[in-house]
Amino acid sequence: MVKTYHGACYCGAVKWEFALDKPEDGRTSLCHCENCKRWFGSNYGMLIKVPWDRFKWSEGSAEPRTHVSDNKGHALTRQFCGECGGGVRDFSDDAEGKFTYVCYGGMDDEARKDLPPKAEFFVSKREPWCQDVKGDDVYRPNELHE
Ligand SMILES: [Zn+2]
Ligand SMILES: [Zn+2]
User: What is the CATH number of the domain that holds 16?
Assistant: First the structure.
């Protein structure tokens, strides 16, 4: 059964949603790379990978702002609220049109329960005091952020 997950930025001006046929179609991951640490302002970034065409801006949403940076030769687009600065989503040029990565913390409480992390990226950059995600089937590549 298709389920729609809703979320918003910090102030609520930018509102978004994505629909999944089953929760397994979304992949939540932690990313310990330097780039995510800076953008999220935290010790890791946390995003849900969802199919590109299942994500949309919700009715009444403000237009997000867009920042594009060079991420080791790839254009990395990050979108956020122009009012409060809260992160919304990102995607690199090789994912554009296929997948987008949505900020986990922006999801409604009930939605977060459905989508626990299944992957951790750049584990060599995990802060030494930070524990790894529980579970034997968690995917932990050291480099790739796909
Ligand atoms: Zn906002
Ligand atoms: Zn990252």
Answer: 2.170.150.70
Give distance in angstroms: CA of 37 to centre of ligand 1. Answer: 20
Assess if residue 98 is contained within a domain: yes
Strand partners, 100: 50
pLDDT reported for residue 71: 87
Report mean pLDDT in 10-residue bins for the chain, 146 residues: 96 98 94 94 97 98 97 93 97 96 94 92 94 87 61
Residue 77 alpha carbon to ligand 2 centre in Å: 12
CB of 56 closer than 8 Å to CB of 18 = yes
Which residues span the domain enclosing 104?
3-125
Distance from Cα 20 to the centre of ligand 2, integer Å: 23
How far is the centre of ligand 2, averaged over its atoms, from the C-alpha of 122 (Å)?
Answer: 7
